[in-house]
Structure formats: structure tokens, C-alpha cells
Amino acid sequence: MNLNYKILLLIALCICNAESEDPSGQFCNTDTNIGSGSQISANIDRLLAELVSKTSSNGFIATSYGKNQDQVFGLGQCRGDVSSKDCSSCIQDAAKQIRQRCPNQADARIWYDHCFLRYNNKRYIGEIDTSFGIFYWNVENVTDPENFNKELGTLMDQIKAQTVETNNEGLGKGETKLSSFVTLYALVQCTRDLSQID
Q: Where is the signal peptide (predicted)?
């Protein structure tokens, strides 16, 4: 085999085996510990397999698996502007990582830039949950806090209105110029199991 082909093959193998990106955040509810060989643990694995296989077709699925006290509820969602290929890849990574990071919890969530995955042994589909989230902020000072807050409020109102538009799938994003050198960006993604009123 030609040396160039060997190098190309080696590079391709390295790319294929590269680790996926780290999640933006995770939550493992330690109040919901379960045994690794329990029925509920097996149901979580089956639920995750279903979330992986069905989320990328339209970017969202909310479903359940099991019965009675061993039933688990799950939600997989990709950001509204993500391709089905990237959605599929993200959900696969999320399903793998959530079980590695939260192996013994019946309530877990994991966030990536392009997707979100959650499961719980309590019914939560269609309910607003603001108990846990990820916040990012810039540590730079704002020279005019009053104007900044006004512009931020206007931008948030605009993108909030976008989230309820049917074709946006719960996604709102936008930007506004604060000065010739500073642009403010914002993004909101609601889970698609919520009503427009929520």
C-alpha cells in the first residue's frame, strides 16, 4: 500500500475514533438512586434506545417505557436549526454519556449545544420545569448597563415571540448591535412538549 494511502487511512481512523464533545451540562438526581441490575435500569436502557432511534426523524420525541413503578419517561430534542444528521449524532452521544455519568439515577438530564436528553421515573412530559438549567455569561463589564438591559429585554421579547411560531419548533434566536464593536446574541430553545401558552 502506498505511503500516502496509509497516512490517509490512519487520519481517517483517528477522526472516526475521536471522542465526542463534552456536554454543556448534566444533572444526575442523587435522590433517585437505583440498582444497576434493576428492572427500572433495564427500562431506562430500552427507553434510551428508542429516543436514539426516533429523535432525529423530526428532532423531537417524548415517550415512556415500562409499567407501574418501573415506568420511565423520556424526552429527546434537538435544537430547531440542527440537521437530522447532526441531531442523530448528538442524541447518540447524549444517550451514551448520560448512562456513563448518571449510571444509578432514575432522573437525569444532559445538554449539548445541539440537543437535550432527559429521563425520569416520574411523569413530567408537558410540564414546565425550571428547576435546573445552564447559564452562560460574559465576564466583561458593560459600559452602559441601562442601555444594555433595555436592548437585552427587547431582544429577549423578539426571540420569545419566535419560539411559539409553528415552523420554529420552539427555537428563538437573534442579535442586536450595541455599538460598532459589540453585538449581543441570544438563543432560547423550549422543549416541544410544552404548549404555546407555556
A: 1-20
